[in-house]
């Protein structure tokens, strides 16, 4: 039997991983910001075709584009289960998996100016 007066820490699910900034990474060859933007646009345009719900893909995109604190709120609100703290692997409440490539999570260390 649980205690009537016990409380969970406000806004924290102990089973949920907290979001952190992605680790630095290097693209196979230097790319421009324009090329990176094109890769990201193509991914987000086709992401719903990989499975899962469009609403979750939209929430993940918003989380990726937000600062870490807002990203956490977005993920929590959408019921997204974070497997990797950098959001590279997530699940929805029904168990559908969402894989996000590095290039949508952060910029490479070898980006070159246009």
TrEMBL record:
Gene3D superfamilies: Ub domain-containing protein, DC-UbP/UBTD2, N-terminal domain. Coiled coil: none annotated. It comes from the Eukaryota. Residues 16-113 form the DC-UbP/UBTD2 N-terminal domain. Residues 1-27 are annotated as: Disordered. This is DC-UbP/UBTD2 N-terminal domain-containing protein. It comes from Physcomitrium patens.
């Amino acid at each position: 039997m649980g205690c009537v007066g016990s409380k969970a820490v406000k806004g924290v699910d102990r089973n949920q991983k907290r979001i952190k900034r992605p680790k630095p990474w290097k693209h196979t060859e230097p790319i421009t910001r324009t090329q990176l933007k094109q890769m990201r646009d193509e991914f987000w345009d086709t992401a719903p075709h990989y499975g899962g719900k469009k609403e979750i893909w939209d929430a993940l995109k918003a989380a990726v584009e937000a600062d870490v604190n807002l990203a956490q709120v977005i993920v929590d609100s959408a019921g997204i289960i974070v497997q990797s703290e950098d959001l590279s692997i997530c699940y929805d409440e029904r168990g559908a998996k969402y894989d996000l490539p590095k290039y949508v999570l952060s910029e490479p260390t070898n980006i070159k100016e246009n």
